[in-house]
Amino acid sequence: VICCDIDSEGLNRMKKDFFSFGNDSEGNDRIIIKCLDISSKVSRDEFYQFISKYCESSSLDAVISVAGVMHAQPQATLTELQISSIFEINSLGPMKLINALIPYLLKNENGGNITLVTSLNARVTWLNIGAYPATKHALAGYGDTLRREAKQNALPLRVSMIEPGSVVTPIAMSLITRQLEWCERFKDSKWTRGIHKSASAATKMLSRGMKIQWLSITPTQVAELILVSVSLENPDARYVRAAFPLLVIFYLVLFLPTHLGDLLLGSL
């Protein structure tokens, strides 16, 4: 297993935690950690060189992409730099990396699995989280096209997408606070009204005892879906997992007329 992240300290903690759960330390060489900045061409090129040498006598079984960052502001207020950065991390970097790794997956006699962790936002866009939904739409489009082109050419490449709702991660847990901080900094913005209304309403609900965890799933639940997607010979194209309230909203917006879906999301 080759684990990559921009956070080298986090990678080392993860590797140490793996063996603290009673795993045999003799398997230590079976987990390789590599520092990788998915948005950097230099970093990706260094990783390509590593993989090229690694696969001289081997192949890849699966590639899993979970990269993701999120802004806490209206999409129209993003700067050009912010837009470029989030697309490089959430969409473009993973696309470029996976395209470069596909030949090593196809070296495998049984082909390979590609799993993309997208989001419910790839189909129903939540408000005031910047270009996050746009990046997940892009990644989902890449995954659908890759899966269909592989089938068209009879290539043993299996592509799945995990579409979680809100997940208990630092990014999601800090979202409301970050949105209110943005409102404070940009009080006079024409875009402040909606985000302030929704963030303030969420803050009131939390003060009355509601927990964000009630509307979220855990990273473990996402990991379980990833394991399913990479272990099956015929995995599903999509795996949806979300807390029940978000699933209800998701399906309502999908099947309601567009103007009603817009009203529903705008009221949250």
Number of strands: 6
Strand content: 5-15%
Mean pLDDT: 91
Main sheet attributes: strand count, strand direction, barrel closure: 4 strands, parallel
Please give the alpha-carbon distance between the first and last residues.
41 Å
The number of helical segments is 10
Low-confidence stretches: none
Please write the string of helix (H) and strand (E) elements: EHEHEHEHEHHHHEHH
Classify the secondary structure makeup into a structural class: alpha/beta
Radius of gyration: 20 Å
The strands making up the biggest β-sheet line up spatially as 3-4-5-6
> What is the 3D shape?
globular
Helical content (DSSP H or I, runs of 4+): 40-55%
What can be said about this structure in brief?
With 268 residues, the protein is of the alpha/beta class. The chain contains 10 helices and 6 strands, in the order βαβαβαβαβααααβαα.
Would you kindly provide a written description of the structure presented here, covering whatever features stand out?
There is one protein chain. The chain is an alpha/beta fold and about 270 residues long. It is built from 10 helices and 6 strands. The chain has helices at about 10-20, 40-55, 80-105, 130-150, 170-175, 175-185, 190-205, 220-230, 245-255, 260-265; strands spanning about 1-5, 30-35, 60-65, 110-115, 155-165, 240. The strands form 2 sheets. A 4-stranded parallel β-sheet has the order 3-4-5-6, sandwiched between helices. It has a two-stranded parallel sheet with strand order 1-2. Strand 3, helix 3 and strand 4 (about 110-115) form a beta-alpha-beta unit. Helix 2 (about 40-55) packs parallel to helix 3 (about 80-105) and helix 6 crosses helix 7. The longest helix has 27 residues, at about 80-105. The protein starts with a strand and ends with a helix. The model has no long low-confidence stretch (mean pLDDT about 90).
